[in-house]
Amino acid sequence: LTEAEAKAKGHDVKTSLITLDNVPRHIAARDTRGLIKLVADRKTDKLLGATILAPEAGDSIQTVVMALKASLTTEELADT
C-alpha cells in the first residue's frame, strides 16, 4: 500500500525514508542513487507497503514482497 492507501484503510501510519547508501545490495553495486519509502502501521510496526525509486528497483522489491507476505515489522525487515 502507499501511504495514502494505508490511511484511507484506517491505518495510523508511520513512514521511513531510506537512502540507498544504507542498503548493502546497492552499495555493492556501486549505485546508491534513489530511495526507499516504507509504510507501516504505527501501533504494530507491521509493514504495509513500500515504494522504491532506484535503478534496478526490481531486485529490491523482491525483499519487500517477501516481507509483506511474511507480515514482518519494519524492525524485522531491517534485521533481514
Gyration radius, rounded: 12 Å
For the sheet with most strands, the description reads: 3 strands, antiparallel
Q: What count of structural domains?
A: 1
The CATH homologous superfamily is termed FAD/NAD-linked reductase, C-terminal dimerisation domain
Low-confidence stretches: none
Strand neighbour order, sheet with most strands: 1-2-3
Instruction: Tally the helices.
Output: 4
Number of strands: 3
Q: Strand share of the residues?
A: 25-35%
The first-to-last residue Cα distance is 21 Å
Run of helices and strands: HEHEEHH
CATH topology name, in short, is Enolase-like, domain 1
> Which percent bin holds the helix content?
25-40%
Give the second-level CATH assignment, the architecture. Answer: 2-Layer Sandwich
Mean pLDDT: 93
Give the class-level CATH name: Alpha Beta
- Give the overall silhouette: globular
Strand pairing plus helix content: what structural class? alpha+beta
Describe this protein's structure.
With 80 residues, this protein is an alpha+beta fold. It has one domain (3-78): Enolase-like, domain 1 (2-Layer Sandwich). Helices cover 36% and strands 26% of the residues. A 3-stranded antiparallel beta sheet has the order 1-2-3. A hairpin with a 5-residue loop joins β2 (35-41) and β3. The longest helix is centred in the C-terminal third of the chain and has 13 residues, at 57-69. It is globular.
